[in-house]
Amino acid sequence: MEDNNIKILFRFHSDILDEETVETMWALPVDIEKGLYQIKNIPFYVPSIATEDIVFAEYDSDEERLTYRETIEYSDNSTVRVVIMNDSIQIETVRKLFNELGCPSEKLNRKYFAMEIPENVRYKKIKDILADMEQKEELSYNESCLSDKHREEIE
Q: Which listed residue, of 3, 15, 46, 144, carries a Cα 20 to 30 Å from 21's Cα?
């Protein structure tokens, strides 16, 4: 990350892990005095957040760090979480497929990655591929943050 990015702590209940969870994410200061920051990386677990969203965060003395309070402005980007279900499928092959379609991702381990669907990418095509691979039991996916723009494409 760039030198001017900072970490923001997110504390939430994770439906995936079924427990209270903490994740930190990189953010670029937009207006420090107002506590506004732009999210710069793809969340692994934080729900309803995507890259380039503008969030309000403030220093929390209990957490001893800058802590997320609310989303101020949503970008038109979306976040999809993917779990590889078939051991014969290589995660890097799947990530490369989606990256070539304009969707970068961040890998957590050999079976799990979070993928960004940028606002300029047609989500219908991505969803069709995900649904096909899920139907074949190659992977499972979750639309953790679907922008209004992408939601309209599939309705």
A: 3
CA distance 93 to 150: 24
pLDDT in tens, the chain (155 residues): 456 889 999 998 877 778 888 999 999 999 999 999 999 999 999 989 999 999 999 999 998 999 999 999 999 999 999 999 999 999 999 999 999 999 999 999 999 999 999 999 999 999 999 999 999 999 999 999 999 999 998 88
- Matching residue, tokens 């995900």: 130
User: Pairing state of beta strands 54-60 and 139-145?
Assistant: unpaired
Kindly state the DSSP code that residue 75 receives in the 8-state scheme. Answer: -
| Alpha-carbon distances of 14 from 22, 49, 108, 110, 138, rounded to whole Å | 9, 13, 16, 20, 24
Residue 90 main-chain phi, psi, to 5 deg: -85, 130
Question: Of 76, 94, 74, 71, nearest to 84 (Cα)?
Answer: 94
Whether the Cβ atoms of residue 101 and residue 126 lie closer than 8 Å to each other: yes
CA–CA gap between residue 9 and residue 3 (Å, rounded): 18
60 is written with which tokens? 């929390």
